[in-house]
Amino acid sequence: MQSNIKDSAVKQSGVRASREQAFAIVFEKSFTDSAIDEIIEGAAMARDIVVSDMARDYATEIFENVDKIDENIEKHLVARSKSRLSKVVLAVLRIAVYEIIFSKVDAPSAINEAVELTKTYASEAEAGFVNGVLGSLVRAGAN
Q1: How many Cα atoms are found within 13 Å in the side-chain-facing hemisphere of 24?
Q2: Would you say the C-alpha torsion 39, 88, 118, 61 has a positive or negative sign?
Q3: CA geometry: angle at 13 spanning 7 and 14, to 5°?
Q4: Between 2-29 and 36-47, two packed helices, what is the crossing angle to 10 degrees?
Q5: How far is it, in rounded angstroms, from Cα 96 to Cα 74?
Q6: How far apart are CA 133 and CA 73, in angstroms?
Q7: Segment 21-80, tens digit of pLDDT
Q8: 130 vs 118: CA distance, rounded Å
Q9: Cβ atoms within 10 A of the Cβ of 11, count?
Q10: Which residue in 18, 22, 112, 139 is a FRET match for 50, CA 20 to 30 A apart?
Q11: ∠ CA 74-80-83, rounded to 5°
């Protein structure tokens, strides 16, 4: 039993680290037209990191589906347009919407992780905004 708890914690921290790597890639992509693989290669060389398969897959699949993801984000923005979102908030929302619509991550987990990323890289106020947008998306039955 103790081993299963420990294994679960290690797996969770690996998933969280991969999500954070995916966030960095998606965020960086907002500044460049470079391909995802070029961004990953540059990040690996500059920061001496190994990008996880999960992070690579997330980033690739997010940009393969970016129009549908952004459409879902825009439907649930209140008093803001997508162009007025900070690049941090947009990157976080793209990851969370991807997880909710395209992956097997349950919505509450995706929202919680998005809120935590936003608190880390933006602010508490922006985290509340992200929570509201994603909550609206889930209540509306995102597709």
Answers
A1: 19
A2: negative
A3: 90
A4: 110
A5: 14
A6: 7
A7: 999 999 999 999 999 999 999 988 887 888 999 999 999 999 999 999 999 999 999 888
A8: 8
A9: 10
A10: 112
A11: 70
**From the DSSP assignment, how many helices (H) and strands (E) are in the chain?**
7, 0
- The confidence score (pLDDT) of residue 44 equals 82
Contact assessment for residue 63 and residue 102, using Cβ atoms and an 8 Å cutoff? no
Q: What is the pLDDT of residues 74-127, one digit of tens each?
A: 999 988 899 999 999 999 999 999 999 999 899 999 999 999 999 999 999 999
CATH number of 2-139: 1.10.940.10
Round to whole Å and give the CA distance between 80 and 64: 25
Both tokens of 46, joined, read 């500059």
Q: Residue 77 contacts by C-beta under 8 Å, 6 or more apart in sequence?
A: 85, 133
Please enumerate in sequence order all residues whose Cβ is within 8 A of that of 21, keeping only pairs 6 or more positions apart, or say none: 49, 51, 52, 55
